[in-house]
Amino acid sequence: MPQPTQHFFESQRLRLCYWAWGDETSPPLILLHGKRDHSRSWDGLAAELSADHRVLATDLRGHGDSQWAVGSHYVFADYIADLVALIDEVCGRASVVGHSGGGLIATLAAGLYPDHFERVAAIEGTGTHLQRLPRAEPDALRAWIDHTRGLAARSPHPMPSVEDAAARLRRGNSRLSEELALDLAAYAVRESEGGYEWKFDPWVDSRDPVELRPEEAPPVWARVSTPVLLLMGEDAAARGIQSPDDAGLFPRGRAVVVPDAGHWVHHDQQALVLRELRLFAQEPA
């Protein structure tokens, strides 16, 4: 398997990490993970896709080897700014594949900065990630302050081993093999006093008191001029969490429901996802 090289760039005074696979002269492809995940979660797909692309998998702020946004919050506008900064830094224009919250970041960014994007694929990247938050009325503002203050009381709970972290990942996704879970866990944790702890910042659950709402996303998506592919797990579609109908929110969108897959579609059915991404890359931009 091709081994990546680690790089860093700066966005909003934060030092952020990305890993790169493939020839620097190949078309750029950026991979974005979701909340509480990390860039090396893409290793399997990145190695395969690097045959035809310069693949860059970035750690979102507060995740992996990227700097934590201490004294701030983790909101979609900041994640979008980071993605645009990475594209400006390395290539000027790129295709992007995002999972979960990473898919939402990619689709929103493509609507706001269409000249930066060649095409966008979102794996489980619409649906539930936009919360129906109330406006900043007195009770809502008080609830936000209480939630934010509560985050300060959180402290990491050390795990005795990487194997224990892998077991926790498998409890979250029973389709993961022991080998894949162990590979994912190896890059998801760091050594700490008493064992190991997750790399992500416990404050990634923070948010602005007024965040983007579901009804505010479609006008942004309507501005996406590039092709959009939505990949969703059959389980999520069946439960109404993700809908193929979401493809209609994009001028050039289409959806594929991947059988026998949950939220982690690229882990549950890597070969099928790889096939769909390769077909998507052949479509006219």
Describe this structure in words.
With 285 residues, the protein is an alpha/beta fold. The protein has one domain: Alpha/Beta hydrolase fold, catalytic domain (Rossmann fold). Helix content is 34%, strand content 20%. The strands form 2 sheets. The chain has an 8-stranded mixed beta sheet with strand order 1-2-4-3-5-6-9-10, sandwiched between helices. Strands 7-8 form a two-stranded antiparallel sheet. The protein is globular and about 50 Å long.
CATH topology: Rossmann fold
Backbone structural class: alpha/beta
Alpha-carbon distance between the two ends: 29 Å
Could you give a short account of the major beta sheet?
8 strands, mixed
Q: C-alpha Rg, in Å? A: 18 Å
Low-pLDDT runs of 5+ residues are none
Number of helices: 10
How do you describe this structure in short?
With 285 residues, this protein is α/β, with parallel strands linked by helices.
List keywords for this structure.
285 residues; alpha/beta; Rossmann fold; 8-stranded mixed β-sheet; two-stranded antiparallel ribbon
Give the helices and strands, then pairings:
Elements: E1 5-11, E2 14-21, E3 28-32, H1 43-49, E4 54-58, H2 76-90, E5 94-99, H3 101-112, E6 117-123, H4 138-151, H5 162-172, H6 178-188, E7 189-192, E8 195-198, H7 217-221, E9 228-233, H8 234-238, E10 253-258, H9 265-268, H10 270-282
Parallel strand pairs: 3-4, 3-5, 5-6, 6-9, 9-10
Antiparallel strand pairs: 1-2, 2-4, 7-8
Helix pairs in contact: 2-3, 5-6
